[in-house]
Amino acid sequence: MNYKGYEINIQKDDDANSPRQDDNLGTMAIFGRNAFLGDEHRGSAFIAIESVLEHVLTSGAVFLPLKIREGYIVSLSFDVADMVKIRLGYSAGYFENTSDFENLISDNTNGVIYMDIEKVIKEFGDDSPDSRERALGALKSEVETYNQYLAGEIYGYVITKPCEDSECDGSKEIDSCWGFYGEECCETEAKAVIDSLIESAAKKKRTATKNSTKGVSHVAV
């Protein structure tokens, strides 16, 4: 696309690393045959459902239940009140949170993403209901980001501009950046870079004009 005399070429980022390799606030534990998803499990392909769920239930951690359907992830409506009555049920593909405490520990459980209470206090100041809701929002955001990664919705941009001198044939690359989650986010950032380049060039021109004006001597006739 053309934007203010520059060309923006947006492409899929096929070499993007999993966001679960980043420094996340939450820990994502996936059980059973889908254990390759989520965070690494410290040398074991499978983790014990009961031990993880017992931890999140007895430690006061903020958490979201997960299940899989067709390989993607989604966060549905879930709040702090739901934490006392959740169920992790199985169906193959999207991660979603459901409710029903009776089936919390089940062979059909897919997984859970949680934030230990110590981290909630460190990041949000205390363990109040408001802080827990904010922590829950952060977990939902991590699930959505991971969903974009699994869907291949990570992009990069390359900004080029037609050459203005004889030494360059066609156009030259001005800037590029990768690892944006969502095409719209990538486009917005590329346009912001171009706006900054244009403003910087205009500032330099104003400065040069101002300096040249200072060097002109005015002689009275």
How would you portray this structure in words?
The protein has 221 residues and is α+β, with helices and mostly antiparallel strands. The chain folds into two domains: 2-14 and 154-214, no CATH class; 19-150, no CATH class. Helix content is 33%, strand content 21%. It is built from four helices and nine strands; from the N terminus they run E-E-E-H-E-E-E-E-H-H-E-E-H. It has helices at 49-58, 117-124, 129-150, 183-214, and strands spanning 2-3, 6-12, 27-30, 62-66, 86-87, 98-99, 111-115, 154-162, 171-181. It has a four-stranded antiparallel β-sheet with strand order 1-2-8-9. Strands 3-7-4 form a three-stranded antiparallel β-sheet, with helices on both faces. Helix 2 packs across helix 3. The longest helix has 32 residues, at 183-214. 25% of the residues are buried. Residues 42-46 and 83-108 have low confidence and may be disordered.
What is the total number of structural domains?
Answer: 2
H-E string? EEEHEEEEHHEEH
Q: How many whole angstroms does the radius of gyration measure?
A: 26 Å
- Which spans have pLDDT < 50 for at least 5 consecutive residues? 42-46, 83-108
Overall pLDDT confidence: 77
Head-to-tail CA distance between termini: 55 Å
- How large is the count of helical segments? 4
The computed structural class is alpha+beta
Shape: elongated
